[in-house]
Amino acid sequence: MAGAAPIFDEMNLADGAVRPAYETLARWLKTIPTDLLATRSREAEALFRRIGITFAVYGDAASTERLIPFDVIPRVLTNDEWVRLSKGLTQRTRAINAFLGDVYSKREILRAGLVPEDLVYRNPAFRPEMNQQPVPHGIYVMIAGIDIVRVDADTFYVLEDNARTPSGVSYMLENREVMIRLFPELFSQHRVAPVENYTDDLLATMKSVAPRSASSDPTCVLLTPGLFNSAYYEHTFLADKLGVELVEGRDLFVKADVVYMRTTEGPKRVDVIYRRLDDDFLDPLVFRPDSALGVPGIMSAYHAGNVTLANAVGTGVADDKAVYSYMPEIVKFYLGEEPILKNVPTWRCREADELKYVLDNLPELVVKEVHGSGGYGMLIGPKATAAEIELFRHKLAKDPSNFIAQPTLALSTCPTLVEEGVAPRHVDLRPFVLTGRDKVRIVPGGLTRVALKEGSLVVNSSQGGGTKDTWVLDS
Amino acid sequence: MLSRTADNLFWLARYVERAEYLARIIEASTRLANLPSAYAGTSNEWESAVATAGCAHLFYQAHEKATRETVIDFLAFSPDNPSSIRSCFEIARTNARSVRTALTVEMWDAINAAWLELSKYRASGLNQDEHLANFLSFVKETGLRFDGSAYRTMLRSDGYWFSRLGVMIERADNTARILDVKYHVLLPGAEQVGGSLDYFQWSAILRAVSALTAYHWVYKESLKPWLVADLLILNDQMPRSLAACYESIVRNLDSLSLAYGRQGPAQRAARATRTRLENARIDDIFQSGLHEFVSDFITENNRLGAAITQQYLT
């Protein structure tokens, strides 16, 4: 692997010139005093705090509500780049849906020997309850948040397929609103593709996957674990923009395999549930019996085909990091196409020779738990202490199949306002892909996350990452 | 709408209303307590503030004596008092967070800003009159801002009606409570003729429900106890009177029954109480006992709250 690949700066070329997409923005950055940027940045923070965009940090008892830092300098993508990305994203989600439909029914890909059986069957996210159970319209993942990183002018890698309950879309939407408020002049100088239609697209997607027994105007709701969930703000935000009820488990009940919500006018039938509640908590009769967040009997209504869950139950088997490494094969197998978006080269520690390579090269690699998320439980070799590396060597030897390893990627950087002024910081991108019965919808851009610490590659909000507005420019 | 949402809206409005009432009680008590005893009598105003706030039992568990310091701390800040202004704002904000979708941005902003602002005030600082005055006007302004936001921005549908019901049930309870505690100063007494000691008590009652100016406009007379009672109980022009609260309660319940196509026990109970208020005359009320009338009303009002919960909110 190339350890010393140059870091791709999305604004500046090596010779100090500016990439065309950033020309206007770079000029603006030169004219605007840094202290004015800092003032705007504080105004943005005040706006976010006022509207109540906070997120809870697990294990941080002192401040259960925190703001995700917002960077006022937008990230720019050209239309050409976006067209390619969105084709790749569409292809990837089609493949994920085909894969899920297959592993819960005919299992052709397993029989073809392309994906090891135990990776599916022994996967904690695999739900035997979904075996041979049709889902409405055969769609499993209606909402995907696919994490993309960029390493050079032409290469975008998929870092992670989030096919369960991806979050962050409210930041994408609110970041844009705040930018338009703070920097109206930038929006008259650029033609930025809008994102505000996301929630309309989401509602259309939800309605399109309503069960056949629903009325012609299906009732959609958003199911939240409640106030104490870290993404609660986002749930309220989305329900509000969608114009659907934000329900908790206790607001729903099941009678004769039909789901109802308790309303001031009596029970009302529910057809489509955008659930932001993990599989484990959905139905205490089927999954965790101690779950007070779920709805007893909802799985039986689901199997009876009387309600659509978005996303379907058991989608986690497709976004698992071990299955991830097979995604190129999965795309080819179901679609007969070459993958448009590449995977990050990945070593599967479950395979002996790959494990050996990983153990021999730990200081250069990133090692991740297959089922982990949110940047927890990973080793970043080049940044780790000798003791941390030894700890992982031990973990790897003990349970190799629980880990994958990837090269330390030179994530691209974008200009970012930090204490010392404007400086490059590493970014990633999470576009949101909506799959309905009729079509796939993606609003241009997505959520850009930025690692605010110099040199840091961890963009997760739970670990000090921030966000930026993401612009797709009309060419 | 979801029953839980309606329940949250109802209680959110109640807690904001309660906080404002507590601020007025503290304000009126401070004024009275500052008067020379030749004007205000020798009764302990802070004791009656605790009684008026309806938390005497809890208060005396925490404090031996009702003084300015203990009462203000308990009514404004104490976390041990589930109805302190702080607790009211905290519960209100929690309710608001869990019904964000049912609130307008302006309403959320009013309640969230109040919650953020609250942390600036400390009990100890309120020993200084200026800080106390700032704090109380902040609380009252929050009430106005929340109420005004609801009035100006909410869709006129069930969410709005439940929110109004919360305000009105709470408001009726508050007005009735102050009458319940202070009824004795309104009763005709021996020394009634010629400059009563109770004069400043009457004006304090009116102040506590922001009705002092209204009194003069309505009656064009100096303060008379039976007219004070008339204003607070029967005068439907006076927004905090029991009659006006029930006008509004009946109207909002009617809107609900019209929208939902059916009515129930809550509508019938509210109408019965309103009719009683409409037909009552203040002389008769004094005749048959002001205290009995008011305590019966408090019971009925509580019952109506329970009926609304039963019918819509669970």
Summarize the structure in words:
The complex is a heterodimer of chains A (475) and B (314). By secondary structure, chain A is α+β, with helices and mostly antiparallel strands. Chain A contains 16 helices and 21 strands. Chain A has helices at residues 23-31, 34-51, 79-103, 108-111, 117-121, 169-182, 184-189, 198-208, 232-242, 279-282, 298-303, 316-319, 321-324, 327-335, 352-360, 386-398; strands at residues 70-78, 143-150, 156-162, 220-223, 245-247, 252-255, 258-263, 266-269, 272-275, 308-310, 342-343, 347-348, 365-369, 378-380, 403-407, 413-418, 421-430, 432-435, 440-442, 447-451, 465-473. Chain A has a five-stranded mixed β-sheet. In chain A, strands 11-3-2-18-19 form a five-stranded mixed β-sheet. In chain A, α3 packs across α14 (327-335). Chain A is globular. Chain B starts with a helix and ends with a helix. Chain B is built from 16 helices and no strands. Chain B has helices at residues 3-34, 37-40, 45-52, 56-62, 68-77, 85-98, 105-118, 129-153, 158-186, 199-208, 212-219, 225-233, 242-260, 265-279, 282-288, 290-313. The radius of gyration of chain B is 19 Å and the shape is globular. The interface between A and B is medium-sized, with 23 and 24 residues.
In a few lines, what is going on in this structure?
Chain A has helices spanning 23-31, 34-51, 79-103, 108-111, 117-121, 169-182, 184-189, 198-208, 232-242, 279-282, 298-303, 316-319, 321-324, 327-335, 352-360, 386-398; strands at 70-78, 143-150, 156-162, 220-223, 245-247, 252-255, 258-263, 266-269, 272-275, 308-310, 342-343, 347-348, 365-369, 378-380, 403-407, 413-418, 421-430, 432-435, 440-442, 447-451, 465-473. Chain A is α+β, with helices and mostly antiparallel strands. In chain A, strand 16 and strand 17 form a beta hairpin.
